Amino acid sequence: MANAFVFGKDNVTGFGSTFIDVLADYWRPYIQQVGVDEKVYFFYDMFYGYIDFSELTQEQYMQCYKQLEKAIEIDLDKIENFYNHYPKELVYKAWFNEIKPKMQSSPLYQS
User: Fold this and answer.
1) pTM for this one?
2) d(Cα 83, Cα 100) in Å, to the nearest integer?
3) For residue 51, what are the β-bridge partners?
4) pLDDT per residue over 29-43, tens digit each?
């Protein structure tokens, strides 16, 4: 499961290491606001592996979901030089086509 986001037992989406690193770095302050960054980033920080949301409570998961939604759908557009001009279009595409649908299909997601 290296270079992946984990949203449930069989709910994983993988990306290249550069993309994971960019999003992991960008998302960290948003996840810190929920207070679960150590849990979510444990394997990533230890092994540059995956970012795991599957061990959160439903309430924590939804708080993270709302924070990530804000990070991508509201705040990203306001950043002029996103990670040394990393293409924001790739982030939007991954969010809307892969990450957000996977997060919404997790058993932890509550609409």
Assistant:
1) 0.91
2) 21
3) 5
4) 999 999 999 999 998
